[in-house]
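2024-03-11 09:14:02 DEBUG pipeline.ingest accepted 1 chain
2024-03-11 09:14:02 DEBUG pipeline.ingest length=95
2024-03-11 09:14:03 DEBUG pipeline.predict start
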Amino acid sequence: MEKDKVIREHMHAVALNGPDEEANMGYAHFACSDKKTNGSKATSYGSDKHAIAKAVRFDKINRGETRATKKIPAGESLSERNRKAKEWKLAHAGK
């Protein structure tokens, strides 16, 4: 049975700077490994593929190859925007 198959994999993905060493290797059920790598059928959020894609996007932004898609309103710094977002979350927590 495929779901009972056990495979050996990197616990921290090499593509995300995980070491390619014995200490970073572990055993996992095939189905668990597949979900860790690819995400669920509904979304890839939280998977290795999602994290790798995000790291590639940030790397391109840092190298100046592309721009961030979210724009900060004129006259507002990133720290100001983050502060406002935190205040909003605190004000609306538990509602």
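2024-03-11 09:14:41 DEBUG pipeline.report The chain has a mean pLDDT of 83.
2024-03-11 09:14:41 DEBUG pipeline.predict end
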